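Risk register update: the risk of archive-format incompatibility is retired. Evidence:
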Amino acid sequence: MKIVIDTNIIFSLLLNSENTIGNIFFNSSDYFTFYSCTYMKFEISKHWDKLKKLSKLSEYQLEKSRELIYSKLHFIDEAIIPPKVWIKAEKIATNIDINDIDFIALSIFLKATLWTGDKHLYNGLEKIEFKKSIITADLFELIKLKRGKSFK
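Archived output:
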């Protein structure tokens, strides 16, 4: 299953990879292939100082964490997404959060599910019946179903 990960999931991973999000991300490669757009790297860089402060990690530790996370992601350059997909994504994102257009467009383009921790985005997508989005708790339950109850 293809999963597009938005910035807030990566942000959470960088702050604490020893939680449910980290468990899913690092221990479910048998079930999921994770993607993100190159724009996400820009967003992480933009908030780097905030991440350092919140994580209480050294610059080196945080950079190593970022490298490890990025190594498990397939990055897709938004330039390859066709204009008709951008138009569709814009119609969806305009009434929810236009800043998430890249992730919505990538999800549509890849026919993937968008994993988000942004409740406003998730609820907005659910409201318009965009069926290809998922939150952490539901993704965790999906893995448990696939694997059996042994996934913790």
